[in-house]
Design goal:
The chain contains 10 helices and 14 strands. It is of the alpha/beta class. The protein has a 5-stranded mixed β-sheet, with helices on both faces. It has a 5-stranded mixed β-sheet with strand order 12-11-10-13-14, with helices on both faces. It has a two-stranded antiparallel ribbon with strand order 4-5. A hairpin with a 3-residue loop joins β1 and β2. The chain is globular.
Length: 306
């Protein structure tokens, strides 16, 4: 089996998977216990050890590879998260191979989500694909030539921090007029003049026929389309996956997004990017961590055989 552990802010999701068929052999979930200590180490590490022991007991098979997905930037060696300020104290520079006494491949959680979609989800069969996660902020990941694009410092795929207005206010990464600040849930109250506490409230108002809400939503979707058209020019993906909480409004998002892309996207020879909703939900990170670890270990998986 191969193991994938996805460490989130509130829970840790672990799965054991058959590398030959991709079948899930066992799944478990544990609390992250962010900020707590257990026997002088971060509680999330103790919880991860227990979770792995449970998975191995349930599957009753040796683990050929183990992957860890977590927030932050993974180092070049894929052995640790090198940069994750503000939360999950003890995560930065934690050597997971040493901590778990086994070889471990470590990657960013958005990267892991796309690897999961590549293996068993909406990106299956693709070699050029990007993922956009629309939620509190806007995250993402890129696969080019069938391989995950990590970049020089591990920050490749932060697609929400593309500038759409060079005179705009700086976002949390210092990028002016970013996509994240145009569509992210974190500032929808400010963008709506206090009318809507969340993007889901905004979408409900659009569905109810609120003209002001429709204008605000269309501005956000237009910004997203401009960003995707830019990614298409730079990366030339065959498919763009949309995930995250805002994607639950897919029926109201997709038609307007397609309409704006009809205006913005350069389509030489009729080539156009395909939009799809991500399919794996909250278990994408676990699947992707396992798949990434398997590929790093040189194991053959179903998709690699195709």
């Amino acid at each position: 089996m191969i193991l994938g552990i996805d460490i989130g802010g509130t829970s840790i999701k672990g799965g054991a998977y058959d590398p030959e068929s991709g079948e899930c052999l066992a799944r478990e979930e544990s609390p992250t216990r962010d900020g707590e200590q257990e026997q002088g180490e971060p509680a999330f590490l103790a919880e991860t050890r227990r979770l792995i022991a449970t998975l191995q007991s349930q599957a009753n098979l040796p683990a050929l590879a183990t992957g860890i997905s977590a927030p932050g930037l993974a180092n070049r060696e894929a052995t640790a998260i090198a940069f994750m300020p503000g939360r999950l104290e003890g995560l930065e520079n934690l050597d997971w191979s040493r901590a778990l006494d086994r070889p471990v491949a470590v990657l960013n959680d958005a990267h892991a989500a796309l690897m999961g979609e590549l293996w068993q989800g909406g990106a299956k069969g693709c070699r050029e694909v990007i993922l956009l996660t629309l939620g509190t902020g806007v995250g993402g990941a890129i696969v080019s030539g069938g391989r995950l694009l990590r970049g020089h410092a591990g920050k490749a795929g932060h697609l929400g921090h593309i500038s759409l207005d060079f005179r705009g206010a700086a976002d949390i990464c210092g990028c002016p007029g970013s996509l994240e600040d145009q569509i992210g849930n974190h500032n929808v109250t400010d963008r709506s003049g206090g009318r809507f506490p969340s993007t889901h409230d905004l979408i409900r108002a659009v569905e109810a026929g609120d003209a002001g809400a429709a204008r605000l939503w269309d501005d956000s979707v237009r910004a997203l389309a401009a960003a995707i058209a830019s990614y298409a020019n730079i990366l030339d993906p065959e498919r763009v996956l949309i995930g995250g909480g805002i994607s639950r409004g897919w029926d109201i998002l997709q038609p307007r997004l397609e309409a704006w892309l009809d205006r913005f996207e350069w389509r030489p020879g009729g080539a156009r990017v395909e939009l799809r909703r991500a399919t794996l939900g909250e278990w994408a990170g676990s699947l992707g961590a396992a798949y990434y670890a398997a590929t790093e270990a040189g194991l053959e998986t179903p998709r690699q055989r195709e």
